[in-house]
Amino acid sequence: MASMELQGVDEILNKLQSMGTNVSRLENKALRNAAEPVLEDAKATNAFNDRSGKLRKGLKITNVKKKEGVKYILIGIDKSDNSKIYYGKFLEFGTSKMPAKPFLQPAYEKNKDNIKRTIAETLKEGLK
């Protein structure tokens, strides 16, 4: 999973806190807004032949999680559907008998700049 660090967000968050805005909800909204285009691009890929549509339907954005004070979300196969579409990981990373046909990493790379911009814009909206 790729990692991204944003600079200057602390200033915006401090200003939001001083205004009494529910920062936590705004942070969650910013993360989800930024993840949507990545999910849509992953679903739209032609990297896999998904005749049943199960893999596309199983791609989801998780709820916001927090680890060591850092909020994050994951985009990928919903754990409740994992047993039905376990093959998604083989497509993404390949096997000893099959080359990788990644669909999540390219979607992230395509939207990397948009992710930063979307998070910043969503947080700025909260300042209004």
TrEMBL record:
The protein's name: HK97 gp10 family phage protein
UniProt-listed NCBIfam families: phge_HK97_gp10
